[in-house]
């Protein structure tokens, strides 16, 4: 079930690279003067993306390219959009470097002459200002403030860095409350790192849980983001005594990285913690390949911002079929889903813009009371979601070495960020 009103969201994995406030100011994109739109012919629309395929830390979003390709291939097999097929030229690698991301965006627009950038999935993406100035649409996973306050950037999950007073997500807390049989009398403790993105996530997620009725036992942002600590005991002791001298009912980890969560959760379990553990990053098939990690994360509730792959929803069955056609045997990952759903929204907008396609007409359609609902990712609404999240998410439990759907995708009202 998807709530009819109030859309907004949050969430992360590397969402934690999200920063502390919407940066880019809304600007009017330059209007195209007559003639054919860049990247558009009578029979094709050319697009390409920017991903963090490689990085010094090993973090990679390369699977988003497979997801986008799978969705575009199905659209092409069905005849394209208004008689035009999608010419997907693949994605550039920004190597998690903002300057390289800016250069990649300029290459795609100026040299390759793409109509739009799909998908963009790079935590440190540096091409936002250029794309906004040029009036070039870009679609992907909003994980930082560069997605917020623009006219051209379309995160499938909205804006995760709302300004004070703008809408902030409540879905995570409300989904957890429903899962646990209500929030009354239950406490939550939020652990973040000392990075600005993690601290910001701690603020929005804490409010998500208190909006759902949980009592906030505490928030700690003292964990160094550079590397897991050699001794988890100080953090564990603080958590285990945070609720009037006892442990909280729920611990939320707003930390980017499986190694951090494995360390924290393992230490909490050794200390006798019996409550609920939840985070945004533990829905990862790679975890299942490491028995030690799978044991440490057993019972953890992960919070993806799309309908889980284990769902029986027709939209997920179709996603799996699409991926299998273009890349047989490919493991299903969050990054893959992000590329797929970003491409899906782009295609929907392409269809609603009509046969007479220019960037300006496309942007006018996207920013003119656009609403798209899909059980695969919830719903998106523009221009509203340029300044707040879409308010939708699901819950997945890791149990016995396998992921299980704990709560299917659902959308909830946002509340003003305090």
Automatic annotation (TrEMBL):
Gene3D superfamilies: 3.40.50.2300
Domain Leucine-binding protein: 44-401
Protein name in UniProt: ABC transporter substrate-binding protein
Origin organism lineage: Bacteria, Bacillati, Actinomycetota, Actinomycetes, Streptosporangiales
Source superkingdom: Bacteria
Pfam family, one: Peripla_BP_6
Signal peptide, first to last residue: 1-23
Record's keyword annotation contains Signal: yes
Keywords associated with the record: Signal
Family listed: Belongs to the leucine-binding protein family.
């Amino acid at each position: 079930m998807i709530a009819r009103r109030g859309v907004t969201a949050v969430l992360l994995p590397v969402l934690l690279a999200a920063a502390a406030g919407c940066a880019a100011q809304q600007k009017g994109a330059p209007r195209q003067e007559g003639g054919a739109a860049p990247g558009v012919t009578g029979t094709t629309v050319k697009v390409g993306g920017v991903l963090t395929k490689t990085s010094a830390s090993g973090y990679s979003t390369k699977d988003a390219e497979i997801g986008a390709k799978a969705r575009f291939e199905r659209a092409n097999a069905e005849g394209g959009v208004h008689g035009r097929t999608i010419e997907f030229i693949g994605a550039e690698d920004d190597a998690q470097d903002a300057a390289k991301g800016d250069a990649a965006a300029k290459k795609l627009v100026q040299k390759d002459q793409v109509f739009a950038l799909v998908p963009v999935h790079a935590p440190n993406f540096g091409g936002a200002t250029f794309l906004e100035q040029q009036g070039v649409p870009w679609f992907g996973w909003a994980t930082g403030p560069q997605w917020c306050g623009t006219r051209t950037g379309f995160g499938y999950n909205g804006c995760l860095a709302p300004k004070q007073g703008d809408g902030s997500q409540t879905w995570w807390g409300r989904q957890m409350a429903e899962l646990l049989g209500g929030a009354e009398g239950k406490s939550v403790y939020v652990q973040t790192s000392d990075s600005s993105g993690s601290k910001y996530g701690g603020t929005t997620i804490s409010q998500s849980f208190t909006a759902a009725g949980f009592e906030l036992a505490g928030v700690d942002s003292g964990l160094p983001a550079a590397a897991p600590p050699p001794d988890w005991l100080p953090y564990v002791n603080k958590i285990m005594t945070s609720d009037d001298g006892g442990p909280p009912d729920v611990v939320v980890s707003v930390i980017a990285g499986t190694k951090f969560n494995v360390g924290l959760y393992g230490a909490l379990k050794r200390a006798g913690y019996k409550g609920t553990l939840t985070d945004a990053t533990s829905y990862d098939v790679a975890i299942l390949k490491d028995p030690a990690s799978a044991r440490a994360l057993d019972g953890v509730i992960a919070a993806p911002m799309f309908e889980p792959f284990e769902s029986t929803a027709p939209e997920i069955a179709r996603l799996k079929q699409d991926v299998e056609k273009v890349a047989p045997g490919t493991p299903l990952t969050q990054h893959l889903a992000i590329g797929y759903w970003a491409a899906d929204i782009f295609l929907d907008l392409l269809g609603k813009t009509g046969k007479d396609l220019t960037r300006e007409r496309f942007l006018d359609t996207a920013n003119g009371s656009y609403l798209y609902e899909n059980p695969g990712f919830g719903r998106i609404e523009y221009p509203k979601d340029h300044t707040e999240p879409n308010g939708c998410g699901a819950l997945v439990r890791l149990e016995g070495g396998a992921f299980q759907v704990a709560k299917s995708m659902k959308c909830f009202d946002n509340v003003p960020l305090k």
